[in-house]
Amino acid sequence: MGCGAGNYSSLLHKQKRHTHVRSNKDKFVVSKNCKISTQSSPPYHSILPTMSAPCSCKHNESTPSVNLSHLSPELQKEFQDPQHPANLICELCRLFYDNNWVTGTGGGISIRDVEGPNPNLVYIAPSGVQKERIQPWEMFLVELPNEKLLRTPNDIPEELTKKYKYKPSACTPLFMSCYKMRDAGACIHTHSQSAVMVTLLFETRSYFEISHIEQIKALPKLRFNEDSGKVEKIGSMEYYDRLIIPIIENTPHEEDLTDSLQEAIKNYPGTSAVLVRRHGIYVWGETVWKAKVYNEAIDYLLELAVKMHLAGIPLVKGS
């Protein structure tokens, strides 16, 4: 098959399915089965998603670029690095959008620069923007542990921001809770329909549970270390393990979820996620890629759980 053609063909199918909500200027093309790129008028989609594995194919298609000369040399270098957290947020937001996880400006993501010179820097996507069109200079930059705001997209020259007034994500205090309480490297918030459905089907429960499903093995096995006072990863979950994810009640305003999220994180040391009833889910991991894997695995299990429940199959074997 070569260069992950199967995965990218599937992604292309999803993108075609969503073209009705995008600009008619956008054209999706496949570059020799290696990656999907988006051709459109700048500034949208100027930083393209890259493959997770190297390929030897020759790409002749030209990549649209944005004039970054309005920025300082430091920021130009930062935004041109495809592995920079700001660019990774853009890449993941597009993928999440195609999975129907962050449509209608919903959801959010933040990444802590754990591999950079200052691992206390946290990049956060803004509120109220179309996640599939987000650009790297639109991020808020916060420094832990005091949550000092170092930069906002409103500081960026208006030639790039078009004078739009950006608002910080309402998820910010919840993201900060995950970083401080679990030493996370990234935190993802989606409005996954499977997550919402699970909280509705089990509306009288304060947690979701499932066992004896192969996909559980993609999730970490965690344990509270009394000596260090921290939750530590001791391996991966096994097929026969029981996955438990706490469910908290929704509130009219996102930031008002902070206390209940913190309580759930404290009371469930083995979890890497918290479900919010009638709302969505928060998932975190030690790196951005671990958080991505955990989010995908959990969403798979939630979707499967809905189908199992409707078919009358117990989610926990033997129960």
TrEMBL record:
EC number: 4.2.1.109
Name of the gene encoding the protein in the UniProt record: MDE1
GO molecular function: methylthioribulose 1-phosphate dehydratase activity; zinc ion binding
UniProt name for this protein: Methylthioribulose-1-phosphate dehydratase
Domain Class II aldolase/adducin N-terminal: 87-306
Database matches in NCBIfam families: salvage_mtnB
Annotated positions binding Zn(2+): 189, 191, 279
Organism: Candida orthopsilosis (strain 90-125)
Its biological purpose: Catalyzes the dehydration of methylthioribulose-1-phosphate (MTRu-1-P) into 2,3-diketo-5-methylthiopentyl-1-phosphate (DK-MTP-1-P).
Similarity remark: Belongs to the aldolase class II family. MtnB subfamily.
